[in-house]
Amino acid sequence: MKHFFNRRENIVTEALDGLLMTSSNGRLARLDSFPDIKVILRADWDKSKVAIISGGGAGHEPSHAGFVGKGMLTAAVSGEIFASPSVDAVLTAIRAVTGPKGALLIVKNYTGDRLNFGLAAEKARAEGFDVEMVIVADDIAIPGITQPRGVAGTLFVHKIAGYHAERDDDLKTVATHAAAAAGEIVSLGMSLSTCSVPGQAHEDRLGADEGELGLGIHGEPGVERIILQPVADIVSTMVTRLSPALREGASHALLINNLGAVPPLEMTVIAKTVLSSPLGRRVRLIIGPAPMMTALNMNGFSLSLIRLDAARDAALMAAVEPHAWMPAVERHEIQTIAAPRTAAGLNGAAVAGENTHNRRLITALCEHLISQENELNRLDGRVGDGDTGSTVATGARSVLARLDTLPLDRPAATLAALGDILGTSMGGSSGVLLSIFFTAAAKAMADKADISAALLAGLDRMTFYGGAAVGDRTMVDALSPALQALASGDIAAAARAAVAGAESTKTMTKARAGRASYVGERDLAGVADPGAVAVAGAFGVVASLA
């Protein structure tokens, strides 16, 4: 896989410097032992309170350095990618930030982290520092395991410990709250891909239709492979595994964590699905969805839950300085506000009417466009953003869904209704352009009952607002010659003209409108414009029914 980096051996130090350069001025700093010892710490720290230290291998960004700041971590110690920091690095961090009130180390339950942080803690105690350590083992993926992994639920402990330290509680109190929290966190991860380490050869162990349930944050194999399925089914499986580990009758905080590469669009679908599940009824506070404990570019997510009480509620809701922490929100219902409606819409002015021929024609056109969804997407994937087929099919499905409400016996009203439907449901520039086309055609048809002239009037308004003309490599290249031919009354000639117009776009290596205008000549050569192809297909349907 491809990555943005300079030299593999410098990627972690350059990333940490990038964090420091883009953080609030003067809030974060690094020790001068950098880059051999990579410690990010609060620049304003005066050692008057309990220090909270965590860390681990890089590759989990924004963890851990991204959570350094007032209200959370005092310092974060980083190793190389997926490698625990050394004992010397951890001990240096302890020395740098620990004052009379001591320090708490928060450690994920991996052998390297336990050993290196543990030995550093022992050495620090021998030097006279008051140090406690809490180990987080929140992963429930492997039932009955004696040493569960520490994963994204660790962030709950960062937040709770940081809250109590900021309140100036003593070390014993801070450690007690942190340990109690660590004992009541459950997490489970799911991914559709393995992660890829920059500079290393990547081999995805998963098939095209496989995902992994219960995998760690270092690319370790999951507990089981599952067949790719709708997110509702994936979430249902995860809920089934998580629910028995939760205390009955209690309310919980939920952390919805992006493991690195899930698009925000999909993460919010996941969030909606989780909160609509039986598990959602047990959630009162929500954190995320957001990338908070990632596994480089893993295309997956994890769910972490902790039982709430008054103290944890206050701790999780408290404002903090680190921008990587997503503020917790209370579970709430979706608020809806009535959309403004026109008088025509309220009074139902466009009364449905029947015309068998028009019904058959519109049905055939819509069914054809829906059948071409994948092919039009394929074409658009080569010259645009790959969604023309889906956009057109969405519009066609919307028309079919409202077919019984259309005034099919009144052509002008039918054209106006089509303009309304496509403008509302189709989306993108195509939806707006076709809405303009049908709306303007409806106005012309109402003035004079001449369908060919009306459609040409619609084309005139569409090209005026859209700016495209014949030769610009758009649907106009098929639509304009077809409508010109239709004006002579020859539907077959119109269909032939549409096909010829669509074919002509294959030789147009410079687009002057639409998303294809951002594509180079090499990629456009020999590929027909998908909008023009859709128009040609539509005229073919009209001709076949004539």
From TrEMBL:
InterPro entries: DhaK_dom, DhaL_dom, DhaL_dom_sf, Dihydroxyacetone_Kinase. It comes from the Bacteria. Residues 7-325 form the DhaK domain. Residues 356-544 form the DhaL domain. GO terms for cellular component: cytosol. Keywords: ATP-binding, Kinase, Nucleotide-binding, Transferase. PROSITE patterns: DHAK, DHAL. GO terms for molecular function: ATP binding; glycerone kinase activity. Gene3D superfamilies: 1.25.40.340, Dihydroxyacetone kinase, domain 1, Dihydroxyacetone kinase, domain 2. One of its GO terms (biological process) is glycerol catabolic process. This is DAK2 domain-containing protein. It comes from Rhizobium sophorae.
